[in-house]
Each structure stands twice: as structure tokens, then as C-alpha cells.
Amino acid sequence: MKGWFQRFMAGRYGFDQFGGFLCISSLILIVIGAWVSPVLYWLGLVAIVYSYFRILSRNTRKRYSENLKYLSYQNRVTTWFGKQQVRFKQRKDYHYYRCPQCGQQLRVPRGRGKISITCPKCGHQFIKKS
């Protein structure tokens, strides 16, 4: 039985991070859709069929590029949440402002009163309360 499965899966793409995300999210959609909305249920079924399609696919280049695209999106999201976590930890020591001219995010220490802030990117000066 084990040899049959290995021969069957030879040349197929298999399981990757995007496939795992699809499987977990589709199961969540199916469970939520069973109680809330049949649209979510059917969306979950479509997602699980697509995840099995990816696992059994022989077009490994396309599946690999899909996984790389997913990983780039995942990296953006985790980086954003990491930055928000750092900002939350530093909220007692620093204020965060955006430069009104170029939009650069600036970190200013708290408790200094009204200060003139100079943007290091564009050189624009503006006054804010720290």
C-alpha cells in the first residue's frame, strides 16, 4: 500500500505552506458556514477542492510560484503585525507622527512639550506636542 501511494505521488507537487493555509481556512469556513451562511459553507468546499487539486497537481512550477506569492503576502502581514507590536510596546516612551509633506513615519520621545520635528527624508519642519 505504501509503495502504491509513493508511486502515485511521484511527480506531483504535494503539500506546502499555501496548501496548509487553504486546508485550515477551508475547514474554518465549512464549520462557520454550517451555522451562519451556506455561502461560506460552499466557499469552504471550493477551497478544500482547490487545495487537493494543488496537492495532486503535476504542474510543479505553477504551484511553486503560487506558494512564493503566498509567502510574500504572508511576510508582509507578519512584518506589519510585528511593527504594530513594537509600536504598542513603545507607546509609553514615544509618539509616532507622519510628516505632512512626504508621509514618512517619525518617532518622537514623549514628555518634551511642544517641539519642532524635522523630517529626515524631506527636511520639512513642523511643530507637534510630544
TrEMBL record:
The chain crosses the membrane at residues 12-33, 39-56. Keywords: Membrane, Transmembrane, Transmembrane helix. Gene3D superfamilies: RNA polymerase ii, chain L. It comes from the Bacteria. This is Zn-finger containing protein. The lineage of its organism: Bacteria, Bacillati, Bacillota, Clostridia, Eubacteriales.
